[in-house]
Here is the input.
Amino acid sequence: RQIFIEPGAPSSRPVLVLTTADASGVPLTHLLPREHYTQIRWFIDYALPDQDLDLPPHDLVFNGIGDPDFMPTLTPAVRRLLGRADPPVLNDPAQVSRTHRSELPDLLSGIPDIVVPPVSRVTDANAIHDVLCRPGLGLPVIIRPLGSHGGAGLRKVDSAEELASLARLHGGAYVTKFVDYRSEDGFYRKYRMIFVNRQPYPYHLAIGPVWLVHYWTSGMADDAVRREEERRFLADPETAIGARAMTALSRIGAKLDLDYAGIDFSVLPDGRLLVFEANATMLVHPEHEAKFAYKNQAVERILNAFHAMLVRYSRAKGEA
Here is the structure.
């Protein structure tokens, strides 16, 4: 089987979701809740030759493959589906494929007030030495295995000795120039905003004592002062990060040109925006712990905006 249906409520809209066995990161459970949508998940890496001619009826197509490293070669059946003007296709695979980490500096080039560190994609550890000779790179760098998220396998390399130890690296990796983004108070701040129909919405702010900041290991749960700073960011992001950064975010959303995406970034002391990553793999979910309940209003804004966008697309299809 290549098609699996997750039925929603009787009045739910059927959405054809393109996915693969390895796809992850796009929060389908929350973006397409069962009270509003029936998900028809089509595993396109196993698509049959003429399967596009016999798909269940659907109002919309949503590409649930957010990581371009997991985008399969599109079969003729999938290409034919995408080539039709009706129904609308959200997060077109061609647009998602432009968000490889190594392509992001070129994709976002020309946008004022942002810093996108140089990134190269390598196939093995030996290639890293050649990459470091390129303009703009050089130690320290961050080594990230292809397709990894959440810091899995991530390491910062500061010296030639550490670089030599990477001889055991298996598979490909991204090599990114490390930019120190520590704030004056000694903490590192990583902001996340979600783009819905290319517009930015604040989602969270993680503040931690080390450069590798992940929300649930940063100590936010134990520090009410840091949580209060996050609350202020969610309520008024422009005051928190500045008008220059907000303008840059709007331009990034337009350049990504995705219906759903996200960006992780920091703000440098001079007000410029330091981009860590920008793609469609960003998670969004409601919070159940009381101490994080202040985040749910921001989550609700994102999910409501996504639902409103799908309703507009669906109505436009019906009118056509």
Notes: Residues 296-319 form the longest helix (24 residues). The chain has ten helices and 14 strands.
